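Slide 14.
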Amino acid sequence: MSTKKTNKKRAASSKGKPARGVKPAKRAKATKAAKKPELKDLNQTTGKTYEQNLEYVKKLEEILEVRKSNPYGTNDARIFEENMAGMSLTELQEVAVRAGVFPSGNRTILKNKLTKAFKSENLGTNVVIDNGPPFELDPNNPKHKKLIEILEE
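Slide 15: predicted structure.
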């Protein structure tokens, strides 16, 4: 009987442990997934630079009165980040209510919520489409002359 008990004890104690002289297999290290580039970081394949001057964008938005039509006050992410940097918590809460974001949390959390909502709402709105040179109508051409008359009516 004693041999059976010792065998059971030996068998029970060796569970989960590798046999003597055998090294356990090494675990593979987890690799980090590659981050997708953000939309603003992508380069154009045409070779043209579409980066606009910030002052030019501000003037254009002032002329178009974007502040009245957009709950964030701008369509440009750089201007929005600049505006949020100078806002207090109550001003951020006002913007959040206008934008439809629940105004809870401290200043940092609210800025993150607003940034996320701004990016999701304005995704793809800063696309530049180059249609080439504008179409010019020649008044000497009879077909163009008819078109000019129709457009002037």
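Speaker note: The two ends are 114 Å apart (CA to CA).
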